[in-house]
Amino acid sequence: MTIVSKFLRAARLDRSVFEEVRWDDEITGQTVIGIAVIAVIQFILFAVFRGVSFGFGLFRGLLESVILGAGLWLIASLALWLVGTYVFKSRRAGQEIVRVVGVSYLPYVLLSAVPIFWWMPIVAALWFVAILTVGVQVLYGFDTTKSFSAAFLAVAVWYLFIFLLF
Q1: In the prediction, which pLDDT does 137 show?
Q2: CB-based contacts of 113, cutoff 8 Å, min separation 6
């Protein structure tokens, strides 16, 4: 199964995809590519919605978008690891967390519509929290409340970094 189908299944809150990616070491590289593709799509759509012409800064903008997307993905993964380890006293391997957060990342394509719909970051965050809640349930075996709390805190840290960067 392709990484695209895994991202789409995660977006539909399919629990089985998180079991698959949790144990599949080879999916980590594919997840990195998926995050990069999401960042590129996000950049292009954002530019189109803002009416920006693609000129000399295209490559630079794409590169910055990919680096930012990967960095924020790792920040969300680190935040989830910290919450799971120190708040809820449960241990999981970093690779598992990175993969689960990675396949949960699809809603952030919606951020590209911010120039048209100011409320898109809220929709993206809620969707990301919902997907991540399912992923945390599978990953840590937490109940829904604990899973939601862990996912919410990870996404809150993610948004805090965005706020501090911009």
Answers
A1: 93
A2: 45, 49, 120
